[in-house]
Known about the structure:
Layout: H1 2-5, E1 12-16, E2 23-31, E3 34-43, E4 54-57, E5 60-62, H2 65-84, H3 95-108, E6 115-118, E7 126-131, E8 138-145, E9 148-154
Antiparallel strand pairs: 1-2, 2-3, 3-4, 4-5, 6-7, 7-8, 8-9
Amino acid sequence: MTELEQAEIGEFIFRPSTRSEDAITLTWKFWKQHLVHIDIREEDKQPGAAIGQRLVLAGEYYDNLREIVERYIIPCNRLVREVTQSTKWMDCQSWEELEMILKEEKQSDKGRIPYRFSILSQYPQHVVLAYVPKDRVVKEFIKVRPKGFYFHEQN
Length: 155
């Protein structure tokens, strides 16, 4: 995906899937060097047609690739932009870096609960919310979806 390595955050490409003849892969530059690969299932594909008449992505139906861009990619890019412009945003390279920063913040004021958002390569298409309620740093994974964020894991 060398085309996307140099591209702006939020750029994407559609390509044939390597998994199935009835699928397309959406490769999306979610954040800096974080590429997300999303499978799109094609339905009602006529013989010889380049693409199916119905496309299925994350349980939602789409009529064409433009609709996927408008209803999926653009809203998700907007959410990523909003998070990364937050005063609580921290551009970290690793979980350990984020954890260390939060522990230092907690140490400087034990009465407050410091928290930060970050995007880490280990968690594709997720924003990590990390906070320190007492002594231990807690992290939650927030999947970026077109209808808003989805909290689905906790550690």
